[in-house]
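User: My instructor asked us to take a sequence, write out its structure as tokens, and then describe one feature of it. I'm not sure where to start. Here is the sequence I was given:
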Amino acid sequence: MAQDASWPTVTEEDLRKAITGTTLTGEVKAEPPFNFSEFLASDGKSRGKMIECCKPEQVVTKGMSYAGEWTLEKDSLCLTYEGEEQKICWRLQVKGDRFRMVDHQFGRVGEGQIRPGNPDNL
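Assistant: Let's start with the prediction itself. The structure tokens for your sequence are:
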């Protein structure tokens, strides 16, 4: 799975600095598409909300809550959610406060913003 050439190549350490203690907020282009907001805590825990819709502002108020753990494996963000045995890994690219991720298994693409801290109190 090739990376988008318009996004810079980033090391695992650069990714760790860019996303630890931040909230990733964006949309995954899937069928149906869904919006999400997920806090990646420095202790490796993740908490988030998602909603199948095209109104990102409704994620925090109407979204389904979830939690799990996150790790970085080279250029990929890997997530294991409560109640799930299989981890989901996304090739992650970062440019400033923007991110792009591609699901290893299904090729789904997600894009959005990296926000400092946990502004949605997830």
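For the description part of your assignment, you could build on this observation: The two ends are 31 Å apart (CA to CA). Try explaining in your own words what that tells you about the chain.
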